[in-house]
Amino acid sequence: MTLNVGVIGTGMIGQDHIRRLTHVLNGARVAAVTDVDLERARTVVDDLPGAVVHETGQDLIVDPGVDAVVVTSWGPTHEEYVLAGIAAGKQVFCEKPLATTREACDRIVEAEVAAGRRQVMVGFMRRFDPQYRAMKSAVTGGEIGAPLLMHAAHRNPSVPPHFTSEMIINDSAVHDIDVARWMFDDELAAVTVLKPRTSSKAAAGFHDPLLVLLELRGGVLVDVEAMVNAGFGYDIRGEVVCEDGAVELSESAGVVVKRAGRHSGRVPENWRERFVTAFDLEFQAWIDAVTAGGTTGPSAWDGYAATVACETGLAALHSGQRIPVVLRERPDLYAKSAAQEEVAP
Ligand code: NAD
Ligand code: ISE
Asked: Is the distance from the beta carbon of residue 129 to the nearest atom of ligand 2 less than 6 Å?
């Protein structure tokens, strides 16, 4: 069976996901696309045999020729499309964020609970990255003892002019927040944000880098250096320190060359290069799960918890205080832990 997918939002990541659905993965085809910029959608559909362009996302969602929906439009538009997908009884893959406010995420959680089944997967692709998965296996395997701390760095080479200090948290560090919850199968208890000396490469009034300190309910601490003007490349680092050992992400791409008393290797150019395998595995897992009648991976609850953590992080950034993370009660629909939801790579 081929899953007919409709894609809402044919910008940068939308086009990348269309490419992988069309040319890389098995079991799906892109049957319909739309974008508020219809010209862009029409250009994209030219390369997709048999696919149609819809005038609006709502039209695409109710198209009987669309079995499942991918939402890759701007964050503030996600709520509307995810809710419409749930109402239409379709499975939805939503790029992060699930929605941009706690209240909007809450409405999505409520809609899914009312529908009585999971219909939403959120695009936290790091959970499918082979290195992060190996790190989690080492942590949960017990060989290096109970976890104590995680050190992380999320360095982007540069960002567009509209980027703000707030976006370092809710656009970039949101991935590290999701990794922390997933790695330790725990919820956040509090967030503190420190501002080191600002890089001279950052625009005026822009604090870059930030140091984001995440406290988990079980006591594990995660420090995240989040930087968006690193210049030299896209550098993602992580190390979990446990009672009897430590586990670290290896250098992120390619091979290491040793020559004339030195060693060197490639630093990825951007998130697309660093996480290409993670995105492929994430989407294949979604296609397989939807074809089998369900979904998998990060849930609407994970999307809700991440957005609440980001809002808490913004309050911490603006106040300079340690701010507790306050979550609503988790509905039974999401009782399975992230580890139990997963499909092995
Ligand atoms: P983009 O600006 O390149 O593309 C967004 C597209 O959405 C544009 O073509 C825009 O015209 C369209 N759009 C806006 N409003 C719309 C609406 N109401 N209906 C239909 N289309 C609409 O942005 P992008 O970089 O592709 O990001 C899109 C989403 O993907 C964001 O939520 C972003 O956070 C997420 N993203 C995730 C990752 C990741 O690593 N997982 C990486 C990049 C982007
Ligand atoms: C981008 O939106 C992503 O999601 C990338 O994974 C992240 O590394 C980058 O900082 C964000 O801007």
From this structure: no
- Which segments within the chain are labelled E, that is strand? 3-8, 28-34, 52-53, 68-71, 91-94, 120-122, 147-155, 188-194, 210-216, 221-227, 235-242, 246-248, 256-259, 262-265, 323-324
Residue of 163, 170, 171 best suited for mutating to test ligand 2, as the one with most atoms within 8 Å of CB? 171
Q: What percent of the chain has pLDDT over 70?
A: 97
CA of 259 relative to ligand 2 center, distance in Å: 34
pLDDT in tens, 227-240: 999 999 999 999 99
pTM value > 0.85: yes
Residue 1: pLDDT band with limits 50, 70, 90: confident
Domains and CATH numbers, the chain: 3-123+277-299+329-334 (3.40.50.720), 127-275+305-324 (3.30.360.10)
